[in-house]
């Protein structure tokens, strides 16, 4: 009977991130730097207001693109906070950033159309693209070049089937931000080659060292061809509410709403009320969370810099570090499993994000500083052991 499963689903490999989590569940004293979600709970005031709204009757289907007052508030937020200069007609609220990805690819992809995706990349991009009939074409980046997507590499990957260029900044899994001059170049290239642009900016509020989030949407000519993907998940610690959004050209958003109406009808009503409460709360709450991630980033970076065999770029956003371990191991998958079983620390092998990430592991600094310190002590002990084992193997002892 299993042969009846659709090829496009059978081809999808189970999530490495979920697999590590399942293994970890069976062990004691685990510290997980695995799954990418804030460890903070949603602010109690947000939950309280959402539940209050539920009690007063916000429990019905909503417009497919979200409640009018939420779309208005989101519009005001995007314009005030990021200067995006959008209108409510250019916005659709979705069931998580994931829901926006689903609708976007369904709207723009014909069978065989190609989407250029900087590698390493968020693993869900591939199934999302393939389920809509498209092809993910990875554009490799390298640790040596700071995982920066070069316009030359993008240009080399363009074919007659290329329809969309994806960007993800701040970036999962590297925690790096695309430099402004690269966004300039990519925008010029997208215009020259007549590509649509999908910019995944779900980590837009989590940027460090006084930076302001920057978007390709602001480059000349981009408003007509760029759709930006956003989410309440990371910025407002609301992963479980499943609330995201997209904004872009009105003609494209209109088509996305058509798709959303038939996929999910609408995003969950109570989650939308929570989203509205989140946008109305004091901005300092989000800033405090971002500041805490920066403190953890500092702690992690300082320590990893001094570990033998570890190379690392300083993360500038999101809550991930992506250290290179090629001096320690040539198999980061095995490394991650051994680390879990010997020291009960979860990291994600970089190959889960595509071949360009193979020599690295992803560490999410989504535990408090004490637990992070403990995890790094265990990590340090483990790599010392690994280096010794490697030396013994080399000398044949
Ligand atoms: C780069 C990126 N895009 C999109 C998402 C989807 O987020 P959500 O559906 O929770 O909004 C994630 C979640 O980890 C992500 O890392």
TrEMBL record:
<dbReference type="InterPro" id="IPR015424">
    <property type="entry name" value="PyrdxlP-dep_Trfase"/>
</dbReference>
<keyword id="KW-0032">Aminotransferase</keyword>
<dbReference type="Pfam" id="PF00155">
    <property type="entry name" value="Aminotran_1_2"/>
</dbReference>
<feature type="domain" description="Aminotransferase class I/classII large">
    <location>
        <begin position="29"/>
        <end position="379"/>
    </location>
</feature>
<keyword id="KW-0663">Pyridoxal phosphate</keyword>
<dbReference type="InterPro" id="IPR015422">
    <property type="entry name" value="PyrdxlP-dep_Trfase_small"/>
</dbReference>
<protein>
    <recommendedName>
        <fullName>Aminotransferase</fullName>
        <ecNumber>2.6.1.-</ecNumber>
    </recommendedName>
</protein>
<dbReference type="GO" id="GO:0006520">
    <property type="term" value="P:amino acid metabolic process"/>
</dbReference>
<dbReference type="InterPro" id="IPR004839">
    <property type="entry name" value="Aminotransferase_I/II_large"/>
</dbReference>
<dbReference type="InterPro" id="IPR015421">
    <property type="entry name" value="PyrdxlP-dep_Trfase_major"/>
</dbReference>
<dbReference type="GO" id="GO:0008483">
    <property type="term" value="F:transaminase activity"/>
</dbReference>
<dbReference type="GO" id="GO:0030170">
    <property type="term" value="F:pyridoxal phosphate binding"/>
</dbReference>
<dbReference type="InterPro" id="IPR004838">
    <property type="entry name" value="NHTrfase_class1_PyrdxlP-BS"/>
</dbReference>
<dbReference type="InterPro" id="IPR050596">
    <property type="entry name" value="AspAT/PAT-like"/>
</dbReference>
<comment type="similarity">
    <text>Belongs to the class-I pyridoxal-phosphate-dependent aminotransferase family.</text>
</comment>
<keyword id="KW-0808">Transferase</keyword>
């Amino acid at each position: 009977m299993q042969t009846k499963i659709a090829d496009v689903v059978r081809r999808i490999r189970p999530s490495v991130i979920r697999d590590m989590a399942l293994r970890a569940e069976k062990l004691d004293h685990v510290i997980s730097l695995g799954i990418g979600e804030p460890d903070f709970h949603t602010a109690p005031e947000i939950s309280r207001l959402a539940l209050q709204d539920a009690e007063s009757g916000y429990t019905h289907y909503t417009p497919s693109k979200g409640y009018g007052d939420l779309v208005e508030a989101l519009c005001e937020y995007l314009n005030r906070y990021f200067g995006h200069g959008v209108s409510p007609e250019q916005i659709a609220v979705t069931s998580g950033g994931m829901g926006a990805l689903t609708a976007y690819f369904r709207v723009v992809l014909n069978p065989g159309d190609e989407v250029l995706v900087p590698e390493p990349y968020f693993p869900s991009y591939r199934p999302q693209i393939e389920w809509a009939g498209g092809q993910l074409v990875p554009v490799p980046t390298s640790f040596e070049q700071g995982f920066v997507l070069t316009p030359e590499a993008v240009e080399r990957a363009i074919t007659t089937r290329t329809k969309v260029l994806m960007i993800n900044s701040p970036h999962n899994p590297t925690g790096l931000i695309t430099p402004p001059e690269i966004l300039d170049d990519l925008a010029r290239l997208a215009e020259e080659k007549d590509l649509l642009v999908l910019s995944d900016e779900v980590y837009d509020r989590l940027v460090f060292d006084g930076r302001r989030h920057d978007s390709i949407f602001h480059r000349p000519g981009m408003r007509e061809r760029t759709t930006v993907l956003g989410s309440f998940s990371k910025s407002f610690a609301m992963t479980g509410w499943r609330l995201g959004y997209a904004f872009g050209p009105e003609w494209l958003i209109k088509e996305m709403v058509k798709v959303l109406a038939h996929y999910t009808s609408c995003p969950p009503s109570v989650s939308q009320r929570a989203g509205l409460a989140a946008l109305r709360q004091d901005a300092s709450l989000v800033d405090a969370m971002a500041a805490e991630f920066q403190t953890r980033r500092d702690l992690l970076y300082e320590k990893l810099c001094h570990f033998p065999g570890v190379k690392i770029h300083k993360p500038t956003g999101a809550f991930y570090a992506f250290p290179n371990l090629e001096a320690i191991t040539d198999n980061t998958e095995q490394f991650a499993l051994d680390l879990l079983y010997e020291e009960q620390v979860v990291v994600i092998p970089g190959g889960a994000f595509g071949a360009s990430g193979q020599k690295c592991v992803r560490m999410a600094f989504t535990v408090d500083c004490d637990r992070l310190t403990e995890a790094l002590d265990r990590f340090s002990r483990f790599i010392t052991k690994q280096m010794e084992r490697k030396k013994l193997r080399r000398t044949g002892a």
